[in-house]
Amino acid sequence: MVSQETIKHVKELIADNEIFVASKTYCPYCHAALNTLFEKLKVPRSKVLVLQLNEMKDGAEIQAALCEINGQRTVPNIYINGKHIGGNDDLQELRETGELEELLEPILAN
Ligand SMILES: N[C@@H](CCC(=O)N[C@@H](CS)C(=O)NCC(=O)O)C(=O)O
């Protein structure tokens, strides 16, 4: 059972960061998502909060809180401007349709 305090904390992290990515250092889907954001789309590191859950003592609880909030159990778990994107598959799909660039436009403009 995830504490309400953790859920509140995670919601704040999502709200306070233009891009939020819950990740794990060994996860190839996380590597692909971060590579797309940082290398392909040139999103500045300062715009993205990356939580490497496997290196955090409360990582499992944060992952459980994310699941409570958005129903997604896997990483990467991505938000852009507070909007839940999903995982790497979802990110790549948005990129193919051009929607990702649209979502990133206001972030890259300032
Ligand atoms: N289709 C998902 C696959 C993500 C996935 O399978 N991630 C694995 C780690 S590589 C995961 O979260 N496994 C459960 C866990 O680590 O708790 C995506 O594209 O993001």
Describe this structure in words.
With 110 residues, the chain is of the alpha+beta class. The protein has a single domain (4-103), classed as Glutaredoxin (3-Layer(aba) Sandwich), CATH 3.40.30. 54% of the residues lie in helices and 16% in strands. The chain has a four-stranded mixed sheet with strand order 2-1-3-4, with helices on both faces. Helix 1 (4-16) packs across helix 3 (59-70) and helix 2 packs parallel to helix 4 (88-97). The longest helix has 13 residues, at 4-16. The mean pLDDT is 98. It binds glutathione.
Task: Furnish the topology, listing elements before pairings.
Blueprint: H1 4-16, E1 19-23, H2 28-40, E2 48-52, H3 59-70, E3 77-80, E4 83-86, H4 88-97, H5 99-109
Parallel strand pairs: 1-2
Antiparallel strand pairs: 1-3, 3-4
Helix pairs in contact: 1-3, 2-4
Glutathione binds at residues 24, 27-29, 74-76, 87-89.
